[in-house]
């Protein structure tokens, strides 16, 4: 498979570090995938970790904006914290949000429980999730049959990072 993809042979070291230079996901179209450079295995602390993530996000934005215009009209992240970090880097690099690129997180984080969202986000029904988890757990304890799939509704909440 690696040969078919024209993948680079990994070089192993004794430093217990991984250094990926201009890596792309092997299942994505190499003409469309944004290459990224990652270094793992150095001593990790919160400040260096934040700097590391900022560097990755900055590289992603610069690569996605090589032509002077963002390659994407929207970015969806798996958490609101990642969306906020990405928003900071977009703003740092002068990318206008949401005019040039829209940004959506996934958590429903509010500013100090004010009802104002930090970024546009997908809000999960956490109280319903907790109730359902307890219900299923009690059924399991009683030896009752439980369903294997539960679907709960989510909502989109505007946070100023979408049009």
Q: Return residue spans where pLDDT drops below 50 for at least 5 consecutive residues.
A: none
* Coarse morphology: extended
Largest sheet: 4 strands, mixed
Q: Could you tell me the strand content as a percent range?
A: 15-25%
Number of strands: 6
Main-sheet strand order equals 3-4-5-6
Radius of gyration, in angstroms, nearest whole number: 20 Å
What's the tally of helices?
A: 3
Order of helices and strands: EEHEHEEHE
Describe the structure.
With 163 residues, this protein is α/β, with parallel strands linked by helices. Helices cover 29% and strands 15% of the residues. It has helices at residues 46-64, 80-92, 126-141, and strands at residues 18-23, 36-40, 74-76, 102-106, 121-123, 155-157. A four-stranded mixed β-sheet has the order 3-4-5-6, with helices on one face. α1 (46-64) packs across α2. The model has no long low-confidence stretch (mean pLDDT 83).
Characteristic terms for this protein:
single chain, 163 residues, alpha/beta, four-stranded mixed β-sheet, two-stranded antiparallel ribbon, 6 strands, extended
Annotate the secondary structure layout.
Blueprint: E1 18-23, E2 36-40, H1 46-64, E3 74-76, H2 80-92, E4 102-106, E5 121-123, H3 126-141, E6 155-157
Helix pairs in contact: 1-2
What does this entry show, briefly?
The protein is of the alpha/beta class. 29% of the residues lie in helices and 15% in strands.
């Amino acid at each position: 498979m690696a040969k078919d993809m024209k993948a680079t042979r990994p070089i192993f070291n004794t430093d217990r570090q991984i250094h990926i230079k201009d890596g792309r996901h092997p299942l994505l179209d190499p003409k469309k995938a944004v290459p990224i450079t990652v270094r793992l295995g150095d001593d990790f602390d919160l400040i260096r970790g934040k700097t590391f993530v900022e560097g990755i996000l900055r590289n992603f934005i610069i690569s996605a904006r090589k032509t002077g215009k963002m390659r994407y009209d929207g970015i969806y992240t798996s958490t609101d914290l990642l969306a906020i970090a990405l928003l900071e880097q977009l703003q740092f690099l002068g990318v206008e949000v949401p005019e040039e690129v829209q940004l959506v997180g996934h958590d429903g984080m509010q500013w100090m429980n004010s009802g104002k969202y930090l970024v546009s986000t997908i809000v999960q029904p956490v109280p319903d999730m907790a109730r359902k988890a307890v219900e299923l757990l009690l059924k399991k304890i009683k030896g009752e049959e439980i369903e294997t799939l539960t679907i709960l509704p989510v909502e989109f909440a505007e946070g100023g990072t979408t049009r």
